[in-house]
Amino acid sequence: MTTKSIDPDFYDSGCISLIEAIVRQAARDYLFAARRRKNRRAAARMREAAGFFRSDYFRRLTGTDGELILKRIQKEAERK
Q: How many domains does the chain have?
């Protein structure tokens, strides 16, 4: 993640670390749920994480296209 594309209000190393941790956790949540797809709660967790990556909030936090990130995570989930 490059700091040049992030909202200037978040241009602080502590905030950057927090944003990275949020994104990593959302990716972990998606992968964890993907392994348990048959479970209703897992399917809901996958939808929730996917919604986060597709949200304007994600774009504002990271300055990146969440759909691209989500596709990478989905490929990772398919491999396992």
A: 1
The residue among 30, 28, 34, 27 whose CA lies nearest residue 62 is: 27
Which residue range is the domain that position 52 belongs to?
A: 3-79
pLDDT, tens digit only, all 80 positions of the chain: 444 565 566 566 788 889 999 999 999 999 999 988 778 889 899 999 999 999 999 999 999 999 999 999 999 998 86
Nearest to 60 by CA among 29, 26, 19, 27: 19
Say if residues 33 and 50 touch (Cβ distance below 8 Å). no
d(CA 5, CA 51): 21
Tokens linked to 21: 């941790």
